[in-house]
Amino acid sequence: MAEDPAKLTAHGKDFDFPVLKGSVGPDVIDIRKLYAQTDMFTFDPGFTSTASCESALTYIDGDEGVLLHRGYPIGQLAESSNFMEVSYLLLNGELPSAKELAAFSSTISRHTMLHEQLMSFYKGFRRDAHPMAIMCGVVGALSAFYHDSTDISDPVHRRISSHRLIAKMPTIAAAAYKYSVGQPFMYPDNRLSYTGNFLRMTFGVPAEEYDLHPAVEKAMDRIFILHADHEQNASTSTVRLAGSSGANPFACIAAGIACLWGPAHGGANEAALNMLREIGTPDKIPHYIERAKDKNDPFRLMGFGHRVYKNYDPRATVMQKTVREVFEALNVSDPVFETALRLEELALNDDYFIEKKLFPNVDFYSGVILSAIGFPTTMFTVLFALARTVGWVAQWNEMISDPGQKIGRPRQLYTGPTQRDYVPVETR
Ligand code: CMC
Fold first, then answer.
1. Minimal-distance CA residue to ligand 1 atom 35
2. Would you name the residues annotated as active-site residues?
3. What is the phi/psi pair of residue 228, to 5°?
4. How far, in Å, from the CA of 390 to the mean position of ligand 1?
């Protein structure tokens, strides 16, 4: 705890509130007794100044453009680690030994299959359903199939459901894609890596051997690492809030997926590539920049700006580098990448974006890579959900294991009518 309490004068009285210190980052004022002591609430829609929980998972310094998982910089993890190792790190707090990593990867690979009846669930959806709509439904349905891991008070149940969610998400996501293109579902092949398996289930067909491209597998794995966790963002907070009531983890992750879908959050990767394609050629960029600055136009530069980063998103730096690697490996190019680079350059030199500290975020370049690999735009947010599942699960476990955990229940500033008497319809 910091030494000096924060002082508040309200209703003519002075109150002291403890100031808590984290291991790094801003101090927080502990206002848990505020209502009891002052008879007042705080007002913070959008939680711009509110720490909703204590967490030891991920740290972001938005001014400096720093992102750490359990203390390790995202750039180092993206360069040298792999998604299974990062998943272990997020769940357990430390990097695994070689033996621990092998055991963890093996456990995850043993949970990749879906209950066969769950596979028939897909047939209830329209073929043209958005794969995120399918994800919300199928992941929500997992709790109807895996009853033996929904007792959240049992740490073994919690561990198994966590492993199941991480393991089954690639199978669920790939099946959503297969259903939309009318191809047969692919069963997992557990000899492959987590990411290799996902690519094969997505792009492979039963009639042929799937040729896994090592550079694509590496790029995809890196993209998963970049999306693995991101502190208390909207979908993670949704998972925590849903979980705070004691709801089972499958239901909580389905809630997270629903929240992620929005264009201000995970849906921005789909929106960003659609925007870049709409812009088309670099000469049209100034027109779109002017639109983004116009308060009367709802258009925003998708893949730009962030609630926390007021500097370059460190994930975007890695993404931009990965675009070049994938293009080189596949011997392809996409004019949309040139448009993106030019848009970034013009926006970063424009007073509006400089003053508001708007920089490219993780979603700005990811679509260019995913499109080169062969994913349709509708799958982009699904891939985000797949990777973020490990973060959601780790955050959910951290919350449930906290002995001081309470149901999340914000209050409000009520501005509706005060009490009045009911009037029968015939006299209204
Ligand atoms: N284009 C144009 N203006 C923008 C943009 C943008 N992309 N982002 C923010 N602004 C302006 C905004 O109009 C506001 O101006 P003013 O102060 O004059 O009203 C100011 O910058 C602050 O924006 P805000 O909306 O109050 O900030 P926020 O923290 O509530 O929103 C955001 C953050 C990410 C929702 C927003 O920047 C945005 O809508 N960006 C585009 C969508 C996007 O790329 N989302 C992905 C986020 S990263 C991945 C993830 O976490 O899911």
1. 264
2. 306, 363
3. -60, -40
4. 26
Q: Decide whether any atom of ligand 1 lies within 6 Å of the 304 Cβ.
A: yes
Residue 304 Cα to ligand 1 midpoint, Å, equals 7
Is 356 near ligand 1, meaning CB less than 6 Å away?
Answer: yes
The CA 373 to ligand 1 mean position distance, Å, reads 28
Predicted TM-score (pTM) above 0.90: yes
Q: Which ligand 1 atom sits closest to the C-alpha of 230?
A: 51
291 lines ligand 1 (CB under 6 A): no
Instruction: pLDDT tens for the chain, 428 residues: list them.
Output: 557 999 999 999 999 999 999 999 999 999 999 999 999 999 999 999 999 999 999 999 999 999 999 999 999 999 999 999 999 999 999 999 999 999 999 999 999 999 999 999 999 999 999 999 999 999 999 999 998 889 999 999 999 999 999 999 999 999 999 999 999 999 999 999 999 999 999 999 999 999 999 999 999 999 999 999 999 999 999 999 999 999 999 999 999 999 999 999 999 999 999 999 999 999 999 999 999 999 999 999 999 999 999 999 999 999 999 999 999 999 999 999 999 999 999 999 999 999 999 999 999 999 999 999 999 999 999 999 999 999 999 999 999 999 989 999 999 999 999 999 999 999 99
Dist. CA 1 → ligand 1 center (Å): 34
Q: How many CA atoms lie within 13 A of 186 on its CB side?
A: 26
Between CA 264 and CA 272 the distance in angstroms is 11
Write the DSSP assignment of 245-294 as a string of letters. Answer: TT--HHHHHHHHHHHHTSTTTTTHHHHHHHHHHHH-SGGGHHHHHHHHH-
**In angstroms, how far is the first alpha carbon of the chain from the final one?**
58
